[in-house]
Q: What sequence folds into this?
């Protein structure tokens, strides 16, 4: 019998773990589709945006993964939809036939319909966005150094992070450290008391879902690092000039980073798959789409019947592995088994020697938690060279209170004066965030 | 007496060496202006475009340099012109007064009026351009992997470098090595015999200015590496489809890299300075502008009376240092001294264990030349962390015939399908090279 053709859409954690599980199987042929030619290690994305790591260090070329397996092929293309009747994936310039399809396109930022949020705030979901944000932060300092009007200068130097989840907490902490030492040394002409990192959380506490003790620790720690943590703060509108609160109060700020929510990638809609809560695809407990036993949806996109697993890396890898197992089961005429999320805990780092870790009922914080965080992230980072260079950068920054990557490398839609002006002159469109600039 | 205000335009080698020389002087205040907030180590730029190094590794934050000196300040801004009567530099958003002005804005690519050359070829003068070119190379391979038409595929896999000077030779060699091992492993579905690296030189030999023996060695070596070296090949036109030769012959290629010439930066024209050959500024032998004793022009831009020094790093550093010396001389009521270019030789690397070095009348090639090349470039690279990580990358690539940075990170005007489509849809303007894409 000829090989079963498995097409995997998306090379995030979920997609890669499907590929890994099927790589060794003789009677399966895998075609991996992604719009990028690299896998992005999202857990460290915020460090790219905080000028701690270079984008290349948390990305790994997919070809480097696929070439190890003779039965895995890669196509770098944009998936537009699927034809479930003819079992085809419609991608840019080609139709790809499948026997089994695994959709793992991940998630995008959710703005909950807050006016101006999408147009005027930075998102932190892709490598490009992270570099844009890094450029924005450094540009604001460069421009503030030339700004004589104190009010405008203060708005330029106010960095607002919306959302007190792990991403928001980690990025606010990283920003505070970037400002505190490296940028203080870089900008002697600036009064660092004018610099503010503000973390906004609509709930009464940060790190929802973490044990009370850790949440208290995180808030205290962030405060000690100089982060202005505002709880019960719900954002009514984001404008080019700043943030308007439900309370009517206005915060002048030129940089708003939106980490408040995620929803399933839009491609699910293009595919006409049944959508559930948060733009996620409602699937059976076996991760199959009802009525389409050969179509699986895994990772952030997937909402298994009667469950609501977190949209994180452990869930993605677990679902990816199970989808692969279920495909193999069906090939062997066995029944697919239902998915059960195994909670291995959660962790978040706040700053040097400060992190929070929950493992089962076991919760701890501080230096040991921080070491464990470092170890786990290095261990999961793909590519030995990446690990080595990331380790060097971390050690360096830790020892010398320094940052390597303080460069403004303009790219499309990035918040730097020059690129802005050029793009404005050319009337470039949606990729611009008119408000998200210090000009 | 209050301090003399020296304004330096441009943070390349010439500008930085001015700053370094004046940094320790008590009665001088230096203001460094650049459109970027980093210094680019141009001698290794081609390695970024060949996916050998990450852009951050050959760039160094100017703040990191300036903060070491209490009398040096930085402004990241675009210089638009000068007002020599009122002794002002006109920059974006601010006018900067000077007592002494040193213009070191460098050079740009010269296309010699060849039709289509500027629109349809990649340039290799800035970090952004290098990353765009890297994206283009990898994108062409990704798209060729999906292309069924053999003719289109061959054009996608034909990479043409125009200009047999050091940059062209080094880049052609680096491309050949990128193709030969790393990309061969990455793209098992492609027939590598369809891949061509073509080096075009209008003169009868490559590396003009180098001793005959080294020029022969370089050509032989490039040929052995699979580079199709074409001498006496003068380009009549560049189109989206390829290169048209004066002979009437046509070479179908989707990627043309133009390294055939450089001319002084355009800002010299905006400044209304007297232009000489190659858009360089005609200055006195003291590097002062005639009639403007307080204005110096140094580096690639500068054409000292009766001399024609090479537009390279040694010349830039020598001129920068001399301009600084002459300013100090004038402050001490001494006469400025004339510039004399001291030729320390030249070097170019072709591939692993293959380079050419000329020192005075002493010329050698091969392994030792290659080691010397590595050593000199590491030594001049600014920033110890950069040196360390570059060394790791070089060692890694050398040992494992591998490349770390095989990522397509789209940026404005970069040759990737997606970004192209988006920008086309938005009718984005001049930053695009309509032809320089594989779509």
A:
């Amino acid at each position: 019998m000829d090989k079963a053709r498995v097409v995997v859409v998306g090379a995030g954690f979920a997609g890669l773990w499907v590929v890994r599980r099927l790589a060794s199987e003789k009677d399966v042929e895998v075609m991996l589709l992604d719009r990028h030619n690299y896998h992005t290690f999202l857990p460290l994305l915020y460090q790219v945006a905080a000028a701690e790591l270079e984008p290349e260090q948390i990305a790994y070329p997919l070809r480097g993964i696929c070439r190890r397996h003779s039965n895995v092929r890669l196509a770098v293309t944009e998936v537009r939809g699927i034809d479930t009747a003819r079992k085809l994936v419609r991608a840019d310039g080609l139709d790809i036939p499948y026997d089994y399809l695994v959709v793992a396109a991940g998630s995008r930022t959710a703005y909950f319909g807050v006016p101006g949020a999408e147009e005027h705030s930075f998102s932190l979901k892709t490598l490009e966005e992270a570099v844009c944000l890094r450029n924005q932060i450094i540009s604001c300092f460069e421009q503030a150094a030339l700004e004589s009007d104190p009010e405008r200068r203060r708005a330029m130097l106010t960095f607002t992070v919306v959302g007190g989840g792990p991403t928001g907490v980690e990025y606010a902490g990283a920003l505070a450290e970037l400002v505190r030492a490296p940028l203080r040394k870089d900008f002697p002409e600036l009064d660092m008391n004018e610099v503010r990192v503000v973390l906004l959380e609509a709930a009464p506490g940060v790190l929802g879902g973490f044990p009370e003790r850790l949440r208290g620790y995180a808030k205290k720690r962030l405060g000690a690092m100089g982060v202005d943590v505002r709880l019960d703060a719900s954002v009514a509108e984001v404008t080019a000039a700043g943030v308007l609160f439900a309370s009517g109060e206005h915060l002048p700020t030129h940089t708003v980073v939106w980490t408040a929510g995620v929803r399933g990638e839009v491609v699910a809609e293009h595919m006409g798959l049944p959508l559930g809560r948060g733009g996620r695809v409602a699937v059976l407990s076996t991760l199959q789409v009802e009525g389409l036993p050969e179509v699986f949806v895994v990772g952030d996109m997937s909402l298994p019947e009667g469950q609501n697993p977190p949209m994180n890396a452990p869930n993605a890898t677990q679902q990816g592995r199970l989808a692969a197992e279920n495909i193999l089961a069906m090939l062997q005429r066995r029944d697919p088994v239902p998915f059960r999320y195994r909670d291995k805990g959660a962790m978040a780092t706040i700053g040097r020697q400060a992190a929070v870790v929950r493992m089962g009922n076991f919760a701890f914080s501080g230096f040991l938690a921080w070491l464990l965080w470092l170890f786990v992230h290095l261990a999961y980072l793909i590519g030995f060279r990446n690990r080595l260079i990331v380790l060097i950068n971390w050690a360096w920054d830790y020892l010398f209170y320094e940052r390597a990557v303080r460069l403004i490398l303009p790219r499309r839609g990035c918040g730097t004066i020059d690129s802005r002006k050029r793009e404005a002159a050319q009337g470039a469109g949606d990729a611009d965030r008119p408000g998200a600039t210090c000009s």
Q: What stands out?
A: Confidence is low (pLDDT under 50) at residues 412-439 of chain B. Residues 135 and 408 of chain B are 5 Å apart (CA to CA).
